[in-house]
Amino acid sequence: QVQLVESGGGLVQAGGSLRLSCTASGSSFSINTMGWYRQAPGKQRELVAVITRGGSTAYAESAKGRFTISRDNAKTTIYLQMNSLKPEDTAVYYCNANLRLTTNNFYLDYWGQGTQVTVSS
Question: How confident is the model at residue 91 (pLDDT cuts 50, 70, 90)?
């Protein structure tokens, strides 16, 4: 089984930076992609950034040039470096992993509990 745990959220002023982390813990799984989503009150959850098994990345248009997704060598921890934060970035940020348990024949999506990011002023 797999658990995703996020950290790094908090309150920051506009123009500031935060670095989110997400670690997939457990054993016997193979990751396809991992990414970050966010959801603001009254809005749909949206993709912010994703990193594929091969290491390629993709970003929401609003994140391009400001956010960077990366991962560790084990490919079980991802990060989201958020610079030049804007008030509209305020949301709960969720870590997502599309992965396969070694006992399964298909990939499933797993979600973290979310971490609050609040950008003021």
Answer: very high
